[in-house]
Design goal:
heterodimer; A: alpha+beta; Uridine Diphospho-n-acetylenolpyruvylglucosamine Reductase, domain 3; Enolase-like, domain 1; 5-stranded antiparallel sheet; 15 strands; globular; B: alpha+beta; Ubiquitin-like (UB roll); DNA polymerase, domain 1; 2 domains
């Protein structure tokens, strides 16, 4: 059962921000409700006001400018099935296809997922590796933050109470050289690894060298984190010879995380799995860089 | 702009019948279906969108009624397991579940049927792998998945 609340349905971002500014901490933005309503049912959150943002047209748009813009109220399902996203950033569509289950994907939104900042989010980890930015709207104007600056910690973001998350912007990235691998037996993943390889020449042919590598590890820390030391080991390596360094890169990533013991596993176990799955994700990304889709599958894991 | 806390009237079509209902903003669709409309097919089980026992279709799309505000169904068509058969004639999925012995305790069955129905409306000839992917998050506590998948595949085969 839910406690009673007042439901507001603004039709513009300005109207929504004015409501959030006026009601302060008494109001919470509401979109799909797949995270929010769970906490409200448990009584962990008791907002007297919900501001439904789904009627705000600009928040529901997918647009292809210089960057791909994903509106905050776009559902996982729309992302998964959007021809634009599948063409421009197939990895994003592929990861969206594996978020939670079909009922959550039908209703849950990209903005809700990111603004909720659950540490076990697939999208936050992926977007960190893809150098995504979020756009925030407030009565004072608009600002853009990198995903890394936006997600501050578990269930904590840089969004101010009167701000609305408008959407996500993705810089163009050679998608064939990226991979996301998640692992776990629970509803939410135990581990998520996103790898994106920038190649010199950038056309994704075999023999190219890695110019810029991004590795993001999610679910094992308070927020998704880039593995800078591990990334540095990949710079200048030929994609054909990635196998020579995957062991060292995986070990370096494992040394860079500080997991806690919980129901997903012990800290030692998670660290070991980080090493294993960074190796695996890197091999997949390197194969894609060479134009090959590897026919790999791992137990209790999803390769997106 | 001032919002609503008191009940509002929503217009929806449930299992083919139009109805107007007075619901409060905090009313969950599952409670309205079970307690107001007396449709008990959708079950409350995990209450966290993990298990699928409360699955209903909104405009053909599977949702967890346990975590869905009833006011969101305004202007839409809701299908519960009670609306699956045409009179006395079972839906092909219901027939296939019976033929395959895909029902054990029956608690997950309504959710399984509706999830399968949503999938077949999107993909006429799904592979076994696609069926398994779509059923992720639809839990059978009797662990009778093999026959459930068999039944769905049988219906998919006839559509091929």
């Amino acid at each position: 059962m839910l406690r009673p609340f007042t439901l507001h349905r603004p039709e513009t971002a300005e109207e929504a921000c004015a409501l959030l500014a006026r009601l302060g901490e008494d109001a919470v933005p509401y979109a799909g409700g797949t995270e929010l309503l769970l906490l409200m049912k448990l009584g962990l959150l008791r907002p007297p006001h919900l501001v439904d943002v789904k009627r705000i047209r600009e928040l529901n748009e997918l647009a292809d400018g210089g960057r791909l813009t994903i509106g905050a109220t776009v559902t996982h399902r729309s992302l998964e099935r959007s021809p634009l996203v599948r063409a421009r950033c197939p990895l994003v569509a592929s990861v969206a296809r594996h978020v939670a289950n079909v009922r959550v994907r039908n209703v849950g939104t990209i903005g809700g997922n990111l603004a909720f900042a659950d540490p076990h989010s697939d999208l936050a980890t992926l977007f960190l590796a893809l150098d995504a930015h979020v756009e925030l709207v407030s009565p004072g104007g608009r600002r853009e933050l990198s995903l890394g600056d936006f997600v501050r910690g578990p269930w904590e973001t840089a969004r101010r109470p009167d701000e609305l998350l408008a959407g996500v912007r993705l810089a163009p990235w050679p998608s064939r050289a990226a991979a996301y691998v998640k692992f776990g037996v629970h509803e939410r993943p135990t581990l998520g690894i996103a790898v994106a390889l920038g190649l010199n020449g950038g056309d994704g042919r075999a023999g190219a060298r890695i110019q810029d590598a991004r590795i993001a590890v999610g679910c094992v820390g308070p927020r998704p984190a880039r593995m800078f030391t591990a990334e540095a080991r990949l710079r200048g390596v030929s994609v054909d010879r990635v196998d020579d360094v995957v062991g060292a890169v995986g070990d370096s990533a494992a040394a860079g995380v500080d997991p806690a013991d919980d129901l997903h596993g012990s800290a030692d176990y998670k660290r070991e799995m980080v090493a294993v799955f960074v190796r695996r994700a890197l091999r997949v990304a390197a194969a894609r860089a060479g134009g090959v889709e590897p026919a790999t599958s791992f137990p209790y894991a999803v390769v997106a | 702009m001032d919002g609503a806390r008191s009940p509002e009237t929503i217009h929806l079509v449930v299992n083919g019948r139009a109805c107007d209902l007075e619901v409060a903003p905090h009313a969950l669709l599952l409670d309205v279906l079970r307690d107001v409309l007396d449709l008990k097919g959708a079950k409350r089980s995990c209450d966290t969108q993990v298990c699928g026992a409360c699955t209903v279709l909104i405009d053909g799309m599977a949702v967890s009624a346990c975590t869905y505000l009833a006011v969101e169904a305004d202007g839409r068509a809701v299908l519960t397991v009670e609306g699956l058969a045409e009179g006395e004639t079972l839906h092909p999925l219901q027939r296939a579940f019976l033929d395959a012995g895909a029902v054990q305790c029956g608690f997950c069955t309504s959710g399984m049927l509706l999830t399968a129905r949503a999938m077949l409306a999107e993909t006429t000839a799904p592979s076994r792998q696609e069926v398994l992917h779509y059923l992720r998050g639809s839990l059978c506590r009797c662990t009778g998945y093999r026959k459930i998948v068999e039944a769905i595949m049988a219906v998919a085969e006839t559509a091929r």
